[in-house]
Amino acid sequence: MDVNIFTPLFKARSVALVGASNDPRKWGRRMLNNLINGGYPGEIYPVNPGEDRILGLTSYPSVSAIPGTPDLAVIVVPPANVVQIVRECVAKGVRAGVVITAGFAELGEKGAQMQHEMVTAARSGGMVLVGPNCNGFMSPWEKLYVQFPSFFTPAGPIAVAAQSGNVMDALARQAMLRGIGCSVTVASGNEADLHIEDYLTYLADDPHTEVVLSYIEGFKDGRRFFDTARQVTRKKPIVMIKAGSTHSGAGAAASHTASIAGSDAVFEAACRQSGIIRAGSMTEMLDIGYALLRQPLPQGRRVGIVTAGGGWGVMAADAAEKMGFDVIRLPEETIKELDRLLPAWWNRGNPVDLVAGSTPGNIFKAMEVMLNCPVVDAVIMLSIMPALRVTGFGVSREEAASENRSAMLVQAVVDAVEHFTRLAVQYRKPVIIATEHMFASAEQEAKINHALGLKRLMCCHMPHEAAAVLKALLSYGEYLRR
Amino acid sequence: MDVNIFTPLFKARSVALVGASNDPRKWGRRMLNNLINGGYPGEIYPVNPGEDRILGLTSYPSVSAIPGTPDLAVIVVPPANVVQIVRECVAKGVRAGVVITAGFAELGEKGAQMQHEMVTAARSGGMVLVGPNCNGFMSPWEKLYVQFPSFFTPAGPIAVAAQSGNVMDALARQAMLRGIGCSVTVASGNEADLHIEDYLTYLADDPHTEVVLSYIEGFKDGRRFFDTARQVTRKKPIVMIKAGSTHSGAGAAASHTASIAGSDAVFEAACRQSGIIRAGSMTEMLDIGYALLRQPLPQGRRVGIVTAGGGWGVMAADAAEKMGFDVIRLPEETIKELDRLLPAWWNRGNPVDLVAGSTPGNIFKAMEVMLNCPVVDAVIMLSIMPALRVTGFGVSREEAASENRSAMLVQAVVDAVEHFTRLAVQYRKPVIIATEHMFASAEQEAKINHALGLKRLMCCHMPHEAAAVLKALLSYGEYLRR
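Predict the joint structure of the above. Result:
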């Protein structure tokens, strides 16, 4: 497949919005507004025979009336008109289209027939199509936001290729809140022309993309998908949710994107053979994706746990063992080294309980001891609190709420997570953190997550989430070593 | 058990802090600071022979030097001094103590002996003890915050009784961020005197407590615990995490709170027989706890799903089926009624996909149709977005970021969730919502969650989380009907 076919799509220099509207209730209005508000620097051509101007732009009565040839046509007209619009686009020389409109194969035979005509028309002119029945895409490096929701995820390393627009939107929004940003996000809809694996092919060589998150309900061509995935995962990781794994879910998938969900056992085996990392939820998928940006892959299943809270350590040990990790017994040598760093009453076991009296400096050194331990492949760190280089927690309520102190605390968390992450890179063993930000207001916490993301850092929230991230890193590492 | 023994503890009219300090590195300083900052209206007596004044308060050289008798003594002195302090408290007539200090039974034989002496001394004078090796407690209705972290969860309906201070703190902090608030939170530590089941006995009749969240690693007396739980769950729900369910976790629990974790299968059976709701994580526990505040319990396993995003519907259907729910086929009658409310191209299946074109008014009516459907016991609602009564999503970036619009959006979410929750109460069938707040910044989202909590409302984040909440409500309902 020639990946240049994606250039007029994700790097379009000009966009026609067919079905643009002045009516605030219409999707064509919202999409145009988003295209403008996203800061797109290229030419935008609204098309609507009933309007002269829309949102300050000249509106054209038809695609053929547009001066010059737009790279991309975004189509938001009623389903019965779509085939004709695609034909006009082909006649004009437009090379890429996004069909937002629903009402095709997902509704049955008649819709499938229309969908077939639409694709035939497009292919006859070398025009590629996203959709139909989709939510569009984001190409943040180009400031090109073809979408319903009014948020604008900044440019970054995470790609999303999803068979659901709302899943794509949720992932993109979280990537924005976490300060990470996206390279490309795309919702494939009914996949009349471009299939999910086509996007993967593009993303494999997209220099901005470092991790691919993918939500799948089923395949038009399973063999082609996994052949593609096998190529991609040698270059960069794919983290995937496979939905429709139950009878109820499969039925819902059929009505949603006309997908045949297939057997989950077969899917699981195919994922293992092609290096795909499976995630159980969107939260887990995001955590895994962020961790992959900077964390090394573990070389084995032996895990050390360092915790500032006994209960958190117990929950992490439970989760790690259930996921197949070996929560190792610390060698005598390691215990002796930790004895020099931790208060006399530390528990001398794994999890290492950072009892009261541990200083940040010694905690970082203790982490080095753990990472240096020959029977430890990875470390779970629970609570970032005791590693923060801040003083005076015993301050007044007013001082605690001050802007200065707030900024200092955000910085202290970023510094501590950065420190642990550098140690992870240095020792080539992952350090996955799970933490409550005990001192932080909701607003501070949002700032912390955003500030971490800007440095490609991450913390999980709960102990079992850290274990799940580690499991994902392990399975990807095992695949690559095979 | 006479629950009046808890009055000098959770409703103390005066508190001695033994081991109070001017040294900002000491816990005794931080705890005193928190006690003051929390707004405690009773008398506070710092005790430290080396200080005259601490944080503006008169410091006393010993417990016996305090004028009058404090209800409660909080003890933060080195372990070797604790027994002597308890003896002084008993001599003084103090009736409740919290021993923060660690270094007792969790460290082995010698510590266990000290712990035994401490309890013997306390019991000889009718003094009850929390701890040792604990993080204290919050009694927000009394503005009594005996704790390390510097946040102050407001008064509310959620009680926390945990065998881990850090778990208690995390739950209390989330209850604060979510605007819900707590009645009492307590970390039981080594349970030398008061056991986790003693707190449950108190909470069962505490008028402020509506839901009990409990984190357990093991029992001193399992039979007594479950006998107590059976009494409590007839009055109010207990949501529990049992940690230490694996070999690694059990080992960690032993070193953390000297607990014997026991078999998880036995525990599971005992929970079923005593009506305890088990949660898999702290996030799940909180979601379940909040849902119990206003949602009715489902009468059966037949679930309807209403979704504004196809992919979310598929994931919810998967999760619901895996948890034993029946994602029912909609009766013809119900489909006909929905035909009158939804756009012509709706999918006519379960999940009901709220395709573009649905209005908030019709969505609420569609929810009534679902709740009125005789084969539906509960509804999962995915995405609150299309039910929001707001206009003009196609606004400029500046307007979207304005204070007014922000407040309007927060209110719109609260109104919509309130509407669904009232329908749930009216039809006596739960409606559990999972949603991304697509339009919201991180700051707005924090405000939304807080505003929802003030009205005892909740949304889950992810589809599988909504299914897990429903499962918890179902199992509690099934128990109560037995």
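Chain A touches chain B through 92 residues (CB under 8 Å).
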